[in-house]
Amino acid sequence: MTPTHLPGQVAIPSLPSLPTQTRDTPGPRSPLEQFNTTPADELEPVLVGCLRSPRWARRISAHRPYPTLDALLAASDEAAYDLTPGDLTEALAGESLPALPESAYSAAHMALEAARAAYQIRFGQAFAICLDGVPPSEFADHLLAAIRSRLANDADEERVVTGEELRRLARGRLVAHLQGRG
């Protein structure tokens, strides 16, 4: 498996190429068919790249085949909602903030680092956010605003928000992977 990268996010290994002659119908395999037929021991590292929870990855892998992308994403959401606090801690340990564009001012990098440090001191965990749909040129503003806003949360509120952000990250990474972008 070769790792691929989403802009500003963790590396996600690519699914290995699979032979197409094992299907009953001619033609290339769809990404979802490939996902559904990849051996679990090869798929689970890919899934852990989407959400750093082995429990979540095993659950997604074990419930295959998925008839549609929507069914896969619904299963992903459900598995993410069922993560225990320990699972969330494990998933957060593998997360990092999306990288700012090289053109961002050094002041933006310093402000983001200070906000990230304040967040980690307050909540004792990494800051997780899904920036799907946010143009890279707006990452710094969006990240700073989100961290500052979430610093006002209490621990229980932040746990819920963090779980939702991890769910959105996993969903976006799955879609990107199946579309060949991840």
What keyword list fits this structure?
two-stranded antiparallel sheet; disordered N terminus; 182 residues; globular; mainly alpha; single chain
Structure summary:
The chain is mainly alpha-helical and 182 residues long. The protein has helices at residues 31-37, 40-50, 54-62, 69-81, 85-93, 106-123, 139-150, 155-178, and strands at 3-5, 11-13.
Low-confidence region ranges:
1-23
Structural category: mainly alpha
Bulk shape: globular
Number of domains: 2
> What string gives the helices and strands in order?
EEHHHHHHHH
Oligomer: single chain
What's the number of extended β-strand segments? 2
The rounded distance between the terminal residues' Cα atoms is: 12 Å
How helical, in percent, are the residues? 55-70%
Nearest-angstrom radius of gyration?
18 Å
Mean pLDDT: 85
Number of helices: 8
Amount of beta strand:
under 5%
> How are the strands of the largest sheet arranged?
1-2
The biggest beta sheet reads:
2 strands, antiparallel
